[in-house]
Design a protein that fits this description.
With about 425 residues, the chain is of the alpha/beta class. The chain has a domain of about 100 residues: 2-Layer Sandwich (GMP Synthetase, Chain A, domain 3), CATH 3.30.300. The protein contains eleven helices and 21 strands. The strands form five sheets. A nine-stranded mixed β-sheet has the order 4-3-5-6-7-8-9-14-13, with helices on both faces. Strands 10-11-12-15 form a four-stranded antiparallel β-sheet. It has a four-stranded mixed β-sheet with strand order 20-19-18-21.
């Protein structure tokens, strides 16, 4: 099934001409309207009119998350605020979010891209789609929601929360498609077992998962335990609707008429050939409010040009196995160690030493901060220790949107070595 077959199955030569046309239009727009790009193009002697082939994109400068943070909140917008109809955000390492703006055209295209991904994953107008991503400033739920409505499916915006409530909704509303993180899907499967409910009591047929890394073994477990076909999809808070699997499940089809994808060496930035593993770099081709040129995602993957049995001609990317930076994904939320350190330091603790310990209990992430008490701290003072722990816990939850357990430990009990700051014992 296709949502926009004229683009999803476009002949490669025709697609590349469309990409070039849209790239040239985007470069001219950012050179006129975004000071960062105008300055960088001038420094490099780049005239957008000189970009005459897709190969020329290698000459363009990278955009990084630091660029987004340094231009907070609206410095990279390419349209006046009066043309922005929606703003959403992702968390940054300093505690300030990256603000992403959308014009009405951006929202419409995002809905179309989500409809493509849902359709490729098996969803039709006859389905009831339960969206168990959290609704809020983060982008996760909104594109899928509007895409499902565009298809004509029934949308159940259940958001996150109590898994028993989610299962009750599935039963009562006869949910046929589930959208959430893969770890939450397994948590729901555990809850089904606890409630002695057989998967056959549900109407589920499809699951579309994303926002965190997962393996083929995890897919098989989800499919077996929930009785569904599970597909992967990929996007970022900064760039939404990038790619999704078809039911062949042999890689994620990139929506190349909207995004130009490259793979680069994470250390050198050198462009790598198809089939090589490296960092995914994306250039938006149709974004109006928040266009990005050669954005370094930090996500590691490979690209393949091999044809897919589904008939789509769009290139595919492999499932994301990890990242090239130190970003952590906890409950589907992107968190940097520097954020955690900034929050802890902001509580008034002087030069705190801490360790981030990540476990998976059942199928859900458990994030713990092991925090050394100050040298002068009296461990017998229970009230003071409780106040420190609660202060850090609340600040982390409020500023990062992730629930951490916080444990105060004796001074100098955490090892001092390069590998001690993060202990990630999760397996997915």
């Amino acid at each position: 099934m296709y949502w926009q077959s004229e683009y999803e199955c476009m002949e490669r030569g025709e697609l590349e001409l469309l990409q070039l046309e849209r790239l040239q239009a985007t470069l001219n727009r950012v050179a006129r309207n975004v000071p960062l790009y105008r300055k960088r193009f001038a420094e490099l002697g780049i005239d957008p009119y000189d970009v005459q082939s897709l190969e020329d994109v290698k000459r363009l400068p990278f955009t990084t998350k630091d660029d987004l943070r340094q231009n907070y909140p609206y410095g990279l917008f390419a349209v006046p605020l009066r043309d922005v109809v929606r703003m959403q955000a992702s968390t940054g390492t300093t505690g300030k979010p990256t603000v992403v703006g959308y014009t009405s055209g951006d929202v419409r295209r995002w809905s179309e891209l989500a409809a493509r991904i849902l359709t490729a994953g098996g969803v039709t107008k006859d389905d009831a789609v339960q969206i168990a991503f959290n609704y809020g400033l983060f982008t996760g739920a909104f594109g899928v929601h509007s895409g499902a409505e565009l298809i004509g499916a029934s949308v159940i915006p259940s958001s996150g929360g109590d898994p028993r409530r989610q299962i009750s909704i599935m039963q009562d509303y006869r949910t046929t498609a589930l959208v959430c993180t893969p770890s939450y899907a397994l948590h729901l499967a555990d809850t089904l077992d606890e409630m002695n409910i057989n998967k056959t009591a549900l109407s589920l047929r499809f699951g579309l998962f994303g926002s965190e890394p997962w393996t083929e073994e995890t897919r098989q477990e989800i499919e077996t335990r929930l009785g569904i076909q599970a597909t992967d999809n990929y996007g970022l808070s900064e760039i939404t609707g990038v790619a999704g699997e078809c039911l062949e499940r042999a890689g994620l089809h990139i929506n190349e008429d909207h995004f130009l994808a490259e793979i680069v060496d994470p250390q050198t930035g050198e462009v790598l050939p198809a089939g090589a593993k490296g960092e995914l770099v994306l250039t938006t081709l149709t974004k109006e409010a928040f266009p990005l040129i050669r954005f370094r995602t930090g996500d590691l993957t490979t690209l393949t040009d091999a044809p897919c049995a589904c008939g789509r001609t769009l290139r595919r990317m492999t499932r994301i196995p990890g990242r090239s930076d130190d970003m952590l994904i906890i409950h589907g939320v992107n968190v940097f160690p520097a954020q955690i350190e900034a929050v802890i330091s902001g509580t008034g603790l002087t030069d705190p030493h801490y360790q981030i310990v990540l476990d998976r209990v059942g199928h859900m992430d458990l994030a713990t901060i092991m925090l050394e008490a100050p040298e002068s701290f009296c461990t017998d003072s229970i009230k003071i220790s409780q106040r420190i722990v609660e202060n850090v816990r609340i600040r982390l939850q409020t500023e990062l949107g992730v629930a951490f357990e916080v444990r105060l430990v004796e001074p100098r009990t955490i090892e001092r070595n390069n590998g001690s700051r993060i202990v990630d014992r999760r397996k997915m």
